[in-house]
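1st attempt posting a full record on here, be nice pls
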Amino acid sequence: MPEIHGYLRVRGTDVVDEDGNKVILKGAATGGHTNMENFITGYPGHEHEMRKALLEVLGKEKYEFFFEKVSFKLPARLICNAHPPTQFLEYFFTSSDAKLFASLGLNCLRIPLNHRYFMDDLNPSVIKPEGFKLVDRIVEACAAEGLYTILDMHTFPGGQNQGWHSDSGLHRALFWEYQDLQDRATNMWVEIAKHYAGNKWVAGYNPMNEPGDPDHYHLQKWYAVVEKAIREVDPHHILWLDGNTYSMDFSGFKDVLPNCVYAIHDYSNMGFPAGQPYDGTDEQKQILRKQYERKVEFMREHKVPIWNGEFGPVYASPGEDNYETINQQRYNLLGEQLSIYKQDQIHWSIWLYKDIGFQGGRDDTHVKHIYDPLIQHLKEEIPEQFQRRRYPQHWGLEGHVHRVVRELLVSELLTYEYASYFEGKTTEELDELAASFKLENCLKRDGLNRILQEDAGITA
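the predicted structure (as tokens):
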């Protein structure tokens, strides 16, 4: 394992190692792995709904075999391989993936976690050891290649935001309405911090991904509580704290907590299908810089480090019209964003690493005739001054309709159809499906990888 110079810590606007050397963390996140999001992994709805439906179809033994266990009694023709077949959670990230990260000049992996690996909502006082075994394997594989890791809690009981990726199955963030839910999360983080307190390859903890606190003050209160609780068992590790409203808003923040880095998510609409294509004009470059500067105003004022915890375009797939031209525009956009971050010497983590080739892009073209009449009806029924009252306001009425109708109701019902395709699958077939995200079975985006190597000063 490579040599490491102590815990990382905050010093002014920098992150430094034990010897005082400045460290800039650059990486990506394993979204879709230890928190399975639908557009990444290829299922409708929410992870807990999908898992429940698959458990019903597969039964307990095959379900556990597919996701996370090798204890299932396998046919001899499978066991005769060089090593026993693994499963989705292991196939998704192995030492080969860590080596690829290192080869691209990256030095940090953000690990998004589903709280259900550590906590059963029906037995919340017991922290499950299975979660640590899962994360330990990833942390150790990265450390062997000289890669830091940041542990990111992506879901919370009751949901910390209104999006599908909080895996609550709701369109409200109940986490902020119940002290009991907040206390559960704090206790969970205390146990995680205890476990990793002595691990110097862990660059720190990202206590909450993309908070969505409608009142803009519960979040800062919980940060103060969880920071104090973590420090009592782990005084060393950095906390990487997301801004409110999906990591874009620090207007409600007042105080700076010690040994903390503050995090934005800096997606650009020009990198998404519905956005204006990026042509690299001076005006577009100014737009990128302005949206970034607005988000980091808090860090500038308080002279603390900046982490861009998520950003990245959506890439077109072969077969789509002009996909090569579209992707080159988006590579150029990514390159311009990286030049801004390099100029400011900030930390960043691209979203994401592996997916089914969609990366969050939603194409409404084929369903507009279904949803447009509903949206128009609601606009006619709801007085205009109230149409943007629902938080987050920037989603607008249209955004909330799609979240509630498509991403909750329709997707939940389609989950049962998804699960039905697993019915009757043999262990061989399940093993093959689980291996879909194994690195050897993935196509690499060479254009993206070249940009990352160039940023790191590596010649391919």
